[in-house]
Amino acid sequence: MTVEEYNKAVDTYADNLYRFVLKNLKDEHMARDIIQDTYEKLWVKLEDVSALKVKSYLFTSAYHAMIDYIRKEKRYSDVDLVSVNEPSHTRQYSDLGEVLERAVENLPDDQKAVVMLRDYEGYSYREIAEISGLSESQVKVYIYRARVYLKNFIGSMEQVI
Question: pTM here?
């Protein structure tokens, strides 16, 4: 990969990477740090990474850095566990986006990440498997479970509208 191709990768993928990490972490400063570290890793491995595979490399690196950060934070914080046995939404809202965002926040981190890659970023199951290091079938299982949870959380459309 050349310096020009590196600069093009920054221009092309930085915003998408930042959005992906920010949606998962909800922390602007940490999202910026992870993106900066991801591009630093790419710079160090400039000779080893093909320009054709740079998008996959960037998302894989950012995904793993994000998961490492989440795991580290979970060790050091007292988090109130959300009961996932009976997800539901009982109040009426007219903003489905707000309800869906709250539901996505309640998902386990692995499910949240793969759903974001699939539904927000538009990656295929195979690409998500490459990025996350999971098998393609495990990606499908996580996405299925997340969608079932989201459906149960939202409930019927009459409650939302």
Answer: 0.56
